[in-house]
Amino acid sequence: MDLSLLFAFAGLCALLALTPGPDTFLVLRFSTAGTRSGIAAALGSTVGSLCWALAVAAGLATLLERSAEAYQVVRIAGGLYLLWLGIRTLLRRGGGLPDIDAAGAGPSWAAARAGFFSNVLNPKVGLFFVAVVPQFLPGHHASIGATMLLGSIFALVGFVYFSLVAVLAGRALEWLRRPRVSKAIDRGTAGVITAFGITTIASAAR
Known about the structure:
Blueprint: H1 3-18, H2 22-30, H3 35-57, H4 60-66, H5 68-91, H6 100-103, H7 106-120, H8 123-132, H9 144-171, H10 173-176, H11 179-204
Helix pairs in contact: 1-9, 2-3, 2-7, 2-9, 2-11, 3-7, 3-8, 3-9, 4-5, 5-11
């Protein structure tokens, strides 16, 4: 592949990563349990991106292009998950996530799992891989090698950015763990994710 094309794609990925979305707020939220949990959420999101790349390489883009109903189901499923995640966060009791030292690996596993499902069930991420990635492929045809290369670039850029968010949040851990701040993060995260879910479902139902 043309090197200039890869740099252009990486630049696009960076711009998308800098645009706040469900993954960003999840990483920030889990970072209140420690930097390790925040990075775990970032890692889960990264694995989700690679799954999307693999699915496109396996022919998902072609399948969805031929079946509007299948794409609608994917969008609705993703919207329902985001809606459930947002409501669950909003209704969660307590001032912040469990302390990382006391809870051990639990928060990290929960963070990785939430990051993964937030990404793999996010229709906007899927739309990027289905509609945008093929435009950067030679001849606009998906091959496993080229698709996975672009998917890896997307995943790497996202992981670096989200990890940076987790590290910076970790440095402000004492402040983030204050009940008022932690509750505000929870409510903000819940509001953003719920809004994403409702918007996704509404657009899919049109």
